[in-house]
Amino acid sequence: MSSSTLASHVLMLGILWGMTNCQSNQSKSQDQISDEPLDQQLNEVFIDQDLLGLSVVLIEKGQLSYQKHFGTIHPDSDENLNGSTKFRIASISKIIPSLAIMQLVERDLVHLDEDVSVYLGWKLRNPNHPHTPITLRQLMSHTSSIRDGEKYSNFAAHMTEKKLPLSELFQGDGQYYTESMFDRRKPGTYFTYTNCTWGLVASVIEKVANQRFDVYTQEHIFQPLNITASFNVSEIYDTYPLAGLYRYQDHQWVNQIDDYRKNSPIPRVFEGYELGQNGLLFGPQGNLRASTEDLVGLTQLFLNQGTVNGNQIISKASLDQMLQIQWSYDGSNGDTWDEFFNAYGLGIHVLTNQPGKDIVFPGFNMVGHPGIAYGLLSDLYFDIESQTGIVFITNGKKQEFAYGTNSTFYSVEEDVFETLYPYLKKSQ
Predict the structure, then answer these.
(1) Residue 234 in 3-state DSSP?
(2) Most buried pick, 66, 185, 225, 278, via CB within 10 A?
(3) What is the pLDDT of residue 34?
(4) Could you give phi then psi for residue 324, rounded to 5 degrees?
């Protein structure tokens, strides 16, 4: 049996294992706290914002306390969103490779401040600073001096068909390399939010763990958490309800991704793929398919200090490192996206709670991650001290997302947060 066949077999065993636990996950939906006034207010947000779908989950005292779902998985479908609906959750995905790296740190297989070239097997350097190593800590905190250059999207579109190694994007003689891949500033000194760098992180995971990225995350994170999320859509698209992601164009909803009712997804892994060749194939930056119930389980991993259902999946010390601020804005040391990103950990967005800026709930010290892609907008944020968390997802909006008036989040996010906040205050 080839290594790729064996890896797929292992992954399918994990998926089937998850299916046996699907009933227990679905039962969570029936245990939610019902609040008719809140349902009505969120329905007003759903209607006023012209959304295709809306899923909202609230965690209080470490437990799922409320969830509500509006709309359908496709505009021409009568299948409603629910707690087990999978979404391509975009950049919330970045939390998972960060967890994987910290697990490997615990096993002494990687070190956050080592030259990442040691793990990749090829030299990664910013040509403007050829003698300065780039590290995992920098990659995971968006301070590596790498940017999503002008040929990044072309590389991503062609990498499966052409069986491209990731080095073709980052090395000077690569056919997809451009000078725009690197900043002129020294690695470790400036925050630039990037997606391509997570292909490097996933490649390191494959190299040192000797497992494909999607298989590693399934075996070491999702199965221990008893959730059925996956970075390999080809393995789950016909097993779980999967929401299509849509934009509204020319007076109709237009699918952007994940409508597989007529055609199957293109397999991510090409024949002859070698571990660590290109971790970007599995979309560690944004391709995780997960449900709101899956994200509750992920949130509880942090709230419970690395232990879920009696399983110690990761140490508290490792989680503390992820949540610790690795970069904070000093007025000139980063691209903040209009002061949305003011502090960042390791694959974790740290909110600074500045009035009118990066704030979810006043008085709650939230960390987590947002996501936006293909018409989807998503959030996963939580506060360790109060054991509070929120998950928000929409799979499409008729108008372009517009900034809110009271924060640097979008108006639809702001509306959801402000609707939930009074109910949250009552329970504290």
Answers:
(1) helix
(2) 278
(3) 54
(4) -70, 140
Instruction: Kindly state the tokens that stand for 294.
Output: 């899956």
Q: What pLDDT score does 271 carry?
A: 92
Residue type, 364: F
Query: How wide is the angle at C-alpha 374 spanned by C-alphas 398 and 260, nearest 5°?
Result: 105
Contact status, residue 86 vs residue 241, Cβ threshold 8 Å: yes
Residue ranges with strand state E in 73-133: 87-88
Q: Which of 158, 203, 194, 192 is nearest to 176 (CA)?
A: 158
Q: What is the dihedral of CA 199, 204, 206, 210, to 10 degrees?
A: 170
Is 248 in contact with 397 (CB distance < 8 Å)?
yes
Residues in CB range of 78: below 8 A, 6 or more apart: 72
Which residues lie below 8 Å from residue 219, measured CB to CB, with a gap of 6+? 10, 14, 211
The CB density around residue 48, as the number of other CB atoms within 10 Å, is: 11
What are the DSSP calls for 342-356, one per residue?
SEE-SS-EEP---TT
Residue 263: how many other CB atoms lie within 10 Å = 7
What are the residues whose beta carbons fall under 8 Å from the beta carbon of 340, sequence distance 6 or more?
Answer: 357, 358, 408, 409
What pLDDT score does 310 carry? 87
This prediction has a pTM of: 0.92
Q: Which two tokens stand for residue 278?
A: 């290109």
User: What one-character DSSP code corresponds to residue 228?
Assistant: -
Across the chain, which distance is largest between two alpha carbons, in Å?
61
- Structure tokens, 291: 């449900």
Contacts of 404 (CB under 8 A, 6+ apart): 410, 411, 413, 414, 415
Model pLDDT, residue 13: 40
Which residues of the chain carry a pLDDT beneath 70? Answer: 1-34, 426-428
Q: Which two tokens stand for residue 77?
A: 């479908």
**Cβ atoms within 10 Å, residue 258:** 22
| Among candidate residues 113, 157, 78, the one with its CA nearest the CA of residue 326 | 113
Residue type, 70: F
- pLDDT for position 35: 86
Phi then psi for 230, rounded to 5 degrees? -160, 145
Q: Could you tell me if 283 and 160 are in contact, meaning their C-beta atoms sit under 8 angstroms apart?
A: no
Angle, helices 95-106 vs 316-323, to 10°: value is 130
